[in-house]
Amino acid sequence: MLPYPQIDPVALSLGPVQIHWYGLMYLIGIGGAWWLARRRLAGFAPDWDNEKLSDLVFWVALGVIAGGRLGYVLFYELEAYLNEPRLMLQVWKGGMSFHGGLIGVLLAVAWFARRQGVSFLALMDFIAPMVPIGLGAGRIGNFINAELWGKTTDLPWAMVFPTDPLQLARHPSQLYQFALEGVALFVILWVYSSKPRPTMAVMGLFGICYGVFRFLVEFVRVPDAQLGYLAFGWLTMGQLLSLPMILIGAALMAWAYRKEGSKA
Questions:
Q1: Do the Cβ atoms of 26 and 137 come closer than 8 Å?
Q2: What integer is the mean pLDDT of 248-259?
Q3: Rounded to 5, what percent of the chain is helix, strand, coil?
């Protein structure tokens, strides 16, 4: 068993102001995505300047935060937040939904693409390879917060999390998700998008890979206590939300290559 590193969730205290690692992870994810987007910008929109790219990053970040928080409220704890609405603003304590954030990003990008007169689908293909940076950083934030831990196990890398009232050795599922949704997904998308691909193919591959990775990790992750298992006695909310991503991603890739083939 590996010892859990005791990391204070508060990275820095300045009087009454506390800066949490969870919030810093979002800044790292957004900053890393912006830096990588600058490197790839010439291949997507050579006429864009840094100001236009910064505008895109701003709206995407807004979609991530607003959509992620609202998605968590709607998908996971609607009743609790209706009883105490002020909790919706306490994002530093966790409680963000990837699937809600994805919806927020799609809406933000659709608005930005229409405003700039560019293809929404092409813009999503451009953005998709940068998303794993934020996903990976967010999972590290979950690990530091000692939240979203896994089921009990006797594997040698199991950990006892300080937030676990039972103090049992568990899968460090946050690190599994960091490795899959962050590192592996980034490598797959970066390599795949390094060559010209049909429009929609990159975003389609993102949907397939993220959906599959999330679906698999949910088998060793403890389901949300307030929800438990929702279907067939073993499907979690994360799995139910990921299944449409896999299907839509596969449909987008099939459509992309069919359109490409029809042009040949």
A1: yes
A2: 95
A3: 65, 5, 30
Kindly report, residue by residue over 104-144, the tens digit of the pLDDT. 999 999 999 999 999 999 999 999 999 999 999 999 999 99
Residue 155 φ then ψ, to 5°: -65, 150
With a cut of 80, say whether residue 261 has pLDDT above it: no
Domain ranges of the chain: 10-263
For the segment 58-68, the average pLDDT, to the nearest whole number, is 91
- pLDDT one-digit tens code per residue, 174-191: 999 999 999 999 999 999
What pLDDT shows up at residue 63?
A: 93
Place of tokens 């813009």: 123
Write down the residue that tokens 């459509």 correspond to. Answer: 255
Provide the token pair at 246. 């896999």
Q: Are 36 and 129 in contact, with CB atoms under 8 Å apart?
A: yes
Say whether 19 sits in a helix, a strand or coil: strand
Q: Write phi, then psi, for 35 (nearest 5 degrees).
A: -65, -45
Amino acid at 13: S
Query: 249 near 208, Cβ under 8 Å?
Result: yes
